[in-house]
């Protein structure tokens, strides 16, 4: 990208939070905190992916979507967190032009895919509760793959358009960005709302209290994740049109881009009986393997 004076933009200066450049608080307090959050996110989402891959009881459409949600969370957190952590401790807080383009491209692609995956998971829960007899047919393996593939395609298209127009100097860019971002948000939110309207209607028709609780419990984790995710996104876009400090926007973006991907594995593991049972079985297997390794090692060491 060239400016009118003929000079080429090679890097951008990342401003960060107010006072970040000279405050010891960011270097010695916030850096360890965000490092722990980053590691927890990577371990939690990677563990969720491996757990679903290896446990036969979790080979259902719901966990197929959850596995890809964990992968998406892992990817878009990894796109921005390393550079943010680096800027807490280095003096030169800049990013190259190409690096900035790639970071935005990857981040936007996976965040958009996250929105569409959450919508697909809402559809899955709606079909499971409203049409349980036809659930295996409607949510077949092929249908699940198509929904996941569609999420990645929509993420790639939105990211390409978003990134391309962001780094060009045309006045219509803002309008086009609003149109594309608005379409993705409104379409996914509409699908989620419609799905939960159907779910609530189906639950209210149930005569058994136990059946109502069981049906709602299957949606509790997803509903929690959706509320946190879209609540933060809505705050960011509403706040962007207000006169409040930009520091609030930066704090919301940290929550949106780093903290939420860390919470998702906890939400789905703590509120899901099947995941907790799978974790217990996996831990027992790991402990048994570890004890066998220790026993074998001791036998080889002892004379």
From TrEMBL:
The chain crosses the membrane at residues 29-51, 144-165, 171-204, 216-238, 250-270. One of its GO terms (cellular component) is membrane. GO terms for molecular function: G protein-coupled receptor activity. PROSITE patterns: G_PROTEIN_RECEP_F1_1, G_PROTEIN_RECEP_F1_2. InterPro entries: GPCR_Rhodpsn (IPR000276), GPCR_Rhodpsn_7TM (IPR017452). Residues 44-268 form the G-protein coupled receptors family 1 profile domain. Keywords: G-protein coupled receptor, Membrane, Receptor, Transducer, Transmembrane, Transmembrane helix. Pfam families: 7tm_1. It is found in: Membrane. Belongs to the G-protein coupled receptor 1 family. This is G-protein coupled receptors family 1 profile domain-containing protein. It comes from Catagonus wagneri (Chacoan peccary). The lineage of its organism: Eukaryota, Metazoa, Chordata, Craniata, Vertebrata.
